[in-house]
Amino acid sequence: NAGVTQTPKFRILKIGQSMTLQCTQDMNHNYMYWYRQDPGMGLKLIYYSVGAGITDKGEVPNGYNVSRSTTEDFPLRLELAAPSQTSVYFCASSYSGTADQETQYFGPGTRLLVL
Amino acid sequence: QQQVKQSPQSLIVQKGGIPIINCAYENTAFDYFPWYQQFPGKGPALLIAIRPDVSEKKEGRFTISFNKSAKQFSLHIMDSQPGDSATYFCAASMSSYGKLTFGQGTILTVHP
Lengths: 115, 112
Prior knowledge:
By secondary structure, chain A is mainly beta. Chain A has strands spanning about 5, 10-15, 20-25, 30-35, 45-50, 55, 65, 75-80, 85-95, 105, 110-115.
């Protein structure tokens, strides 16, 4: 099991450019999440999904979009990059329906710099 | 209502010391309280978690103390080691929804 994988590891974007952060999990988890981590701010939930075709906004969704066409993949789209989106982005997944359901498994992160 | 406040921001202890990290929450609907550990360049990983029906939970050198009436919980690391140096996050959720609200994080440094 690879767990949760994210690509790319690091990216520099110019203001106004767009990009997609990829996230894939091979644990057959139904729940998936996107967080951003800024220094001293903890992790903030951007979007989450409880299953294929179902997504919902988290605490800081502005400037981002997501889709969930399969159980495995949960890409995060930045349409018009802004310096405020400079951050480290983490994807996570979990499985509902068991005693372990709340444990979220995180990917290694994508570091994004918007200049 | 959704905030989780964590303190201190950073903590330095000597090897063998007992660092304590504290968290406070406001939403009484929270019923699941995990702690995540994060090493530099890595994603967070679950360390230990507690539910409000118990006041303490131990796993190895890590202990969570939970005070439901005060809406506070804390992480204690017994006999701390340099390998425990990491960032620690508390979190809370209403377990039926799965979404975690994280504290701001504590950077722990354990000197040899």
